[in-house]
Amino acid sequence: MALSPTAAQRRVIDAADPSTGRLRGTEAQLAGLVKRGLAFRHPRPPHDHFLTPAGHRIRDADAEPDPPPGPVPAAARPDTGGGVFAARVGGEEDVPAGAGPARLREVRGAWQGLLELRRMTRPDGSTELPCAWERTHLVRAAALALEAAGHRPAGPAGDDGYRVRATPQPDAVAVHQPDAAALRECAATLERAGWQAGEHTEPRTRTRYLLASPRKV
Fold first, then answer.
1. CA separation for the pair 68, 6 (Å, rounded)
2. Disordered: where is this region (predicted)?
């Protein structure tokens, strides 16, 4: 669990780059943020420091007014355990109709963090292909690629947003989207993100869906 930052560290978090989460501060401040799980040090020169999802949440919380008293909605709480960011796969309960500024920043930060993870774990430093984490978290990884590109997840009432679901195939997910044009746009987004996606038809309902899997080469 991430520890609360000191006042000096909080100022460093607040001054992070809004797009990439890149940090500037003294070595002691940055090392302290890494120790608290709020930042990570890039392994390649120039070894810059970036906010982790937990660090992004602290910055976003500072930028927003305090919420009204009362229980926290389920959609506002992390749902993967350990405070890790979770992309919306579609159909979640109690999810707001639109994506507010805080959510957009969180998604953008998570996507940039995933690209950094790709870069760090590939010998050539490439970000074009999915990494091992994505291959073991297929549904969340595909949903993040879609949400980060601006696609809207479906609500609990079954509107025209996307839904990402597991399949019997261990290396593939299904992406459902009632609108045919939007389904093709989802395919294009996943392909740009390093996935291969093809349209298929449900035998009984005759509805179209995508079968997507991470590319290996």
1. 25
2. 1-23, 39-83
